[in-house]
Specification:
14 strands, single chain, elongated, alpha+beta
């Protein structure tokens, strides 16, 4: 079987985690590595992790590669299957950086490599009108897609990567994450369940990287869930139930609540945020606080959809999701579509609805 033999350096950064540094012709990379773009299968399961190609960015890089004196010093990052082998030169210490040969099989039906970082650069190089273009690469052996996804998030977290893609990938990562991402893992798991479970009231309603037509922005739902997990209904559920089955239990409660919202406001449920503030960022966050208040009032058990519907119908006459004015107090009236997804407006709406409910 044909293979590519490349001089390389190998280094062990931690037990069982070996990385390789080598130079390779960018034109050759597509022969053994491919892009694994984030997508959903027919059952709604997430596969892959890469963002969609940015055509303008690729064209800019291609023109640069075709210019007189191009230089791309930053390395691309590749994940390899265990079919890729590193053979060190004889006589070297086992615990240091070793020189040797990286042997990469070619002509396989399935690729032996995946592009973790450098998709746009490699696409531009493959399309550029040049005979070859060498560049540096860093590679590692990935045990599974989860490890590839982990490295993809960590590499791109400090770069302008769409947050929606990071949030959609987080549920599939079990490894240690930076604190800011770790705090968002459980909310993103719940978003994944809500948006991709047939029968969920929010099935395919949430706008995600793989569902760009959704009308409820993922970051609005994440914020609503974070608030509840901090000191609301979901927090109480988390600290009073066994860990096993906890996510499923939280999801059931959220199904009940959002099912009630859909039923109470069914005449405007399908409207986009520009025509209704129900599934607008401000509306979603304020509804989350209302959910917590309802659950707190009925602490003898966990609310079901019927109970949520009863309480929300009492609130319905006070809501101005699609017409009229919100009366937030003396000299503070806003037309329904003047409410924006800002901290000030979200606080105004949340406090207004909470005060009304608590007086009932």
């Amino acid at each position: 079987m044909p293979q590519l033999e490349i001089p390389a350096l190998a280094m062990s950064q931690s037990p069982g985690r070996q990385i390789f540094a080598f130079g390779v012709d960018g034109k050759m990379v597509p022969h053994f590595a491919q892009v694994f773009q984030a997508s959903r299968d027919g059952a709604g399961s997430l596969s892959g992790y890469q963002r969609h190609q940015v055509r303008k960015h690729i064209d800019e890089i291609r023109l640069y590669v075709e210019s007189e004196r191009p230089m791309i010093p930053n390395a691309v990052v590749l994940a390899f299957s265990d079919e890729v082998r590193f053979e060190p030169l004889a006589g070297q210490a086992e615990d240091g950086t070793r020189m040797g040969t990286l042997r990469i099989p070619l002509g396989q039906e399935q690729p032996v490599g995946w592009i973790v970082d450098g998709q746009q650069r490699l696409t531009a190089i493959s399309e550029a009108d040049v005979a070859h273009f060498p560049l540096f690469a860093v590679g590692f052996i990935a045990a599974d897609e989860g490890e590839q996804r982990e490295q993809f998030i960590l590499v791109n977290n400090t770069r302008p990567l769409p947050k929606s893609l990071i949030y959609e990938l987080l549920p599939g990562v079990d490894a240690a994450l930076p604190p800011a991402l770790a705090r968002r893992r459980l909310p993103t798991v719940l978003v994944d369940v809500l948006n991709n479970t047939p029968g969920s009231p929010l099935y395919h309603v949430v706008k995600q990287h793989t569902n760009p037509s959704g009308r409820l922005r993922d970051n609005s739902l994440i914020k609503m869930l974070e608030n509840s997990l901090t000191d609301g209904m979901l927090y109480r559920y988390r600290v009073t139930t066994p860990e096993e089955g906890r996510v499923e239990g939280m999801a059931r409660l959220l199904f009940e609540f959002w099912g009630a919202v859909r039923e109470v406001w069914k005449e405007i449920w399908e409207l986009p945020p520009r025509r209704s503030r129900l599934l607008h960022g401000a509306g979603v966050v304020s509804l989350g606080y209302l959910m917590d208040a309802i659950a707190d009032r009925h602490r003898e058990g966990w609310p079901d959809q019927t109970l949520f519907e009863v309480e929300l119908r009492r609130m319905k006459p006070h809501c101005r999701w699609t017409e009229g004015y919100w009366d937030f107090g003396p000299e503070t009236k806003l037309r329904w579509n003047e409410v924006q997804n800002t901290s000030k407006d979200v606080d105004l709406l949340t406090n207004h609805l909470s005060r009304i409910y608590l007086r009932m």
